[in-house]
Amino acid sequence: MQKFNQIHSLFEHLPANYGEFSDFEQKIATLAQEMKVDLSLYEIDHLSIRVNTEDKAKSWLTTLLNYGKILSNNLVNGRAIYLIELEQPLLFMGQRVFIIELPFPKNKHYPVESWEHIEFVIPFLPNESSIEWVERVQQQFLWNQSGNLTIKVDEPKVDGEQLPNPSIAVSFADKSQNHVCIKVHPFNIKNIIKVS
């Protein structure tokens, strides 16, 4: 797994080096274990970066565009978020992931500027509403019953998107040692974009 990513020349030019990516992967694995989620059973559809300045966001974007193309550039909850599809995937938790999410900063300050979260897909059941989906996922995993985890439920509003896109974000309550987050949503991000 490491050799596959190490030869990806993207890491020679990113503001964050390969070591930070490897550390991110390990922290996600630790969080997934706490969440009792086997990520190999689900599709990881994208990885996300967090930065605090527009200059750093532009630096990431410039580099990523040397290795891929813009799939989407939308305003989400009032800030620009780019989705970049890489020509060559990154291997993450045994899966080939092609899409990187790069939000431009708004008002929030992140303690760590680097790789921040992943999103994986648990599809809607037939005729299931967003509220029913959230309740089902919560009941399946019982994350809200763990004192070690923080849960945030959201449904981002994006201009032009036709599919509902609720998400459940899970992170450690104590972020001092592990700042990463795992999010769950019902549709692959490319399906969301196609109908926008």
**SSE-based structural type:** alpha+beta
**How many structurally independent domains?**
1
Main sheet attributes: strand count, strand direction, barrel closure: 8 strands, mixed
- What average pLDDT do the residues reach? 88
Unreliable sequence segments: none
User: With helices defined by DSSP (H or I, 4 residues minimum), what is the helix count?
Assistant: 5
Question: How large, in whole angstroms, is the Cα Rg?
Answer: 16 Å
| Share in helix | 25-40%
Question: Strand share of the residues?
Answer: 25-35%
Assigned CATH architecture: Roll
Number of strands: 8
The CATH first-level class comes to: Alpha Beta
CATH topology: 2,3-Dihydroxybiphenyl 1,2-Dioxygenase, domain 1
End-to-end gap:
35 Å
Q: What's the shape?
A: globular
- What is the element string, with H for helices and E for strands? HHEHEEEEHEEEH
Oligomer: single chain
Protein name: VOC family protein
Organism: Basfia succiniciproducens
InterPro entries: DUF991_YecM-like, Glyas_Bleomycin-R_OHBP_Dase
